[in-house]
Write a structure and sequence with these properties.
It is built from 12 helices and 17 strands. The protein is of the alpha/beta class. The strands form 3 sheets. The chain has an 8-stranded parallel β-sheet with strand order 9-8-7-10-12-16-14-15. It has a 7-stranded mixed β-sheet with strand order 2-3-4-5-6-1-17. The two termini are 15 Å apart. This is Ornithine cyclodeaminase.
Length: 354
C-alpha cells in the first residue's frame, strides 16, 4: 500500500448516510411485496395527515421553463426535515427519458445531518398511488369495484395496485390516446390478476365506473372529462393537473363536485382549482381523516380529489423507507458528510488526505 494511502484518514461512521438507489428500492419493494408496501406506505401517510397541524408547510418551489418544471418540495416536523427534488417534462418520453424523475433527503432537525438519501422516481409513483387510494377510502362510493383509468403511462399500474390493495378494486377500464400505452398497461395488469377492459375512448372507459382516475402528462389546459361523462355518485381522482396551466376536467364538473385537496395554497395554483375563483370552497383531506369534516355523505354526491401531490406525502414516504431499512437492509453507505477530528479544522482534514 502506498504511504499516502496508508496515512489517509478513513471516513468515520458519522460521514456515512444510508443511500437507497433505484436498484435497492426495487429490491426493497419486491422483498416486502408491492401491495403490502402500498398498504404500509398509506398507513404512514394517514398517520402524518392525522397530525397535519404539527408540520411546517409551504407550497413547492417551482422553476418553470418552456420544456417543463423542476421543483423542490420541503416539509418538516419537530424531529425531521425532508425534501424532494422532482421534475416534470412531458416531452421527455419522445426523447427516451422519463417524464418524472426524483430523489429525496430526510434529515435530523436536531443536528441537520441527513439520515437518508433515496431515489424517489419509483417512490413517488408508489406514494402518489397510496395517497389516491387512501383518499378514496373516505371519498369513494361504498363497495366501488370498477375504476376507469384515463392515461395509461408510468403511473397507471401503481394506481391500480393501490386501489386493489387498499380498496379492493379489481375491475379496470383503461384508455389512453396512445394505444401502445394502453396495451402495455393491459399486459402488465392482466398479469397481476386484474379484470381489464381495453377501451377505445374516454367515454367508453367511464361507463359503469364508480371511480374515475385521470392521469395524463401534457402540460396544457385539457378537457379529458366533459361534464356529460360524469354522473352522480362518482368519485374523481384527478392526479394529472399538477402545475400551473395544466388541467384535465371541464370546469362544469368542478361546480357539481365536492372538492377535496391536500394543501389549498398549492392546489389553487396547480390543480383543477385553477379554473375557479380563489374563494371557491374546498375541504382539506386531512380534516376528513381527522373526523372534523365530512367526506362522502351519500350515494349521489360527486367527490373530487384534486390531487397535485404535497411534500408531507414525500416526508411520509421517506420516513417509511428509513424504517423499513431496519429489517430490509437494501441500501449502500454513502460517504456524504465531512467529519474532521476537530469540527473546526475542516482544512486540516483536507491537507491530511493528500
Amino acid at each position: 500500500m502506498p504511504p499516502a494511502a496508508a496515512t489517509r484518514p478513513a471516513p468515520s461512521d458519522l460521514a456515512f448516510v444510508p443511500f437507497v438507489s433505484v436498484d435497492n428500492m426495487m429490491r426493497l419493494v419486491n422483498a416486502i411485496g408491492v401491495e403490502p408496501f402500498l398498504r404500509e406506505l398509506a398507513a404512514y401517510i394517514h398517520a402524518d395527515f392525522l397530525r397535519w397541524p404539527e408540520f411546517d408547510k409551504t407550497p413547492r418551489v417551482a422553476s418553470h421553463s418552456r420544456d417543463g418544471v423542476i421543483e423542490l418540495m420541503p416539509a418538516a416536523d419537530a424531529r425531521h426535515y425532508g425534501f424532494k427534488y422532482v421534475n416534470g417534462h412531458p416531452k421527455n418520453m419522445r426523447e427516451g427519458y422519463q417524464t418524472v424523475t426524483a430523489f429525496g433527503v430526510l434529515s435530523s432537525v436536531a443536528n441537520g445531518y441527513p439520515v437518508l438519501l433515496s431515489e424517489m422516481t419509483l417512490l413517488t409513483a408508489l406514494r402518489t398511488a397510496a395517497t389516491s387510494a387512501l383518499a378514496a377510502q373516505f371519498l369513494a362510493p361504498r363497495d366501488a369495484d370498477v375504476m376507469a383509468m384515463i392515461g395509461n403511462g408510468a403511473q397507471c399500474e401503481f394506481q391500480a395496485l393501490a386501489f386493489r390493495a387498499i380498496n379492493g378494486v379489481n375491475r379496470l377500464r383503461l384508455y389512453d390516446i396512445d394505444p401502445n400505452a394502453t396495451a402495455k398497461a393491459v399486459r402488465n395488469l392482466t398479469a397481476q390478476g386484474f379484470d381489464v377492459v381495453h377501451c377505445l375512448s374516454a367515454e367508453a372507459a367511464v361507463e359503469g365506473a364508480q371511480i374515475i382516475t385521470t392521469c395524463t402528462a401534457d402540460k396544457q389546459y385539457a378537457t379529458i372529462l366533459t361534464d356529460n361523462m360524469v354522473g352522480s355518485g362518482v368519485h374523481l381522482n384527478a392526479i394529472g393537473g399538477d402545475c400551473p396551466g395544466k388541467t384535465e376536467l371541464h370546469r362544469d364538473i368542478l361546480l357539481r363536485s365536492d372538492i377535496f385537496v391536500e394543501y389549498p395554497p398549492q392546489t389553487r395554483i396547480e390543480g383543477e382549482l385553477q379554473q375557479l375563483p380563489k374563494d371557491h370552497p374546498v375541504t382539506e383531506l386531512w380534516s376528513v381523516m381527522a373526523g372534523t369534516a365530512k367526506g362522502r355523505r351519500d350515494g349521489k354526491q360527486i367527490t373530487l380529489f384534486d390531487s397535485v401531490g404535497f411534500a408531507i406525502e414525500d416526508f411520509s414516504a421517506l420516513r417509511f423507507v428509513r424504517d423499513m431499512l431496519e429489517t430490509h437492509p437494501h441500501f449502500d453507505r454513502l460517504d456524504l458528510l465531512a467529519d474532521p477530528d476537530d469540527p473546526r479544522d475542516l482544512f486540516g482534514m483536507l491537507i491530511r488526505a493528500r
